[in-house]
Amino acid sequence: MAKILFVVDTSGSNASSGATIIINGVVQGSGTDPNNIYRLGSINTFFNQYSSKTNFYWGLITFNTAIVDYVKQVGSASSFTGTKNVMQNAITAYSNGETANSGTMYTFALNAAKQAIINDPDNTSVNRAKGLKYYVILMSDGAPSDLGNPPDPANATPYVSALLAAAPNAVTLDTVLYGNQNADPAPVQMLSGIATEGNGIFTNSTNLNTININNLVQQNVCP
Predict the structure, then answer these.
(1) How far is Cα 159 from Cα 194, in angstroms, rounded to an integer?
(2) Fewer CB near the last or first residue (10 Å), C or N of the chain?
(3) Residue 83: inside a domain
(4) Residue-wise pLDDT tens digits, 90-114
């Protein structure tokens, strides 16, 4: 059983960061992903490819200075669903309801993922022994607002450790950096460090046309 949890940055820089994003020759706006093409497109591509797998469960959480659990928002009792229509409704709700604002709170994101796993009724030692795995995909466009100034990767360690401990030996944390047009080293160091501590893979994408979640997750989830 594979439980895939998308944890997606909706901070204000997605809509307005000073950098102009051009995709396929079309100016999208001044943010890192102003029309949600990269984030939503990546999720849809992966979900559409693997939604027919009966052993896959899905979750979708967004973060800035607040958390939205879209699977729960559309009526699920758990943060994970194995029902295709429920996850599709969650993706649609995210697409329709996303408002980019506020800061980039990595601690909120990591804590929300931890709680989703802790509260999952399938998260038992029996199921973990049978092969239950959680794959958390953290997508962000920049360095955190809440882990030091400048951000220090060491400050994330307790939060990553707590996430891994939510389901011992059953959690992988992958990270994606998108829209880093100015090649700021801070988010690279943060997200690569978090992925290493989370036993996952870091992907640094500055080209919104080519990178998708499949390239990141297939190595762990879909060999």
Answers:
(1) 10
(2) C
(3) yes
(4) 999 998 877 777 788 899 999 999 9
Distance between CA 38 and CA 74 in Å, rounded?
A: 23
Domain region containing 149: 2-217
Q: Note the pLDDT tens digit of each residue in 53-77.
A: 999 999 999 999 899 999 999 999 9
What tokens does 2 get? Answer: 């594979």
Q: Is residue 82 part of a domain?
A: yes
The token duo for 178 is: 């998108």
Q: Do the Cβ atoms of 180 and 188 come closer than 8 Å?
A: yes
As for how many domains the chain has, the answer is 1
**Stated pTM of the model:** 0.88
Distance of CA 34 to the CA centre of its chain: 17
In Å, what is the CA distance from 18 to each residue of 15, 31, 34, 184, 185?
A: 9, 6, 11, 14, 17
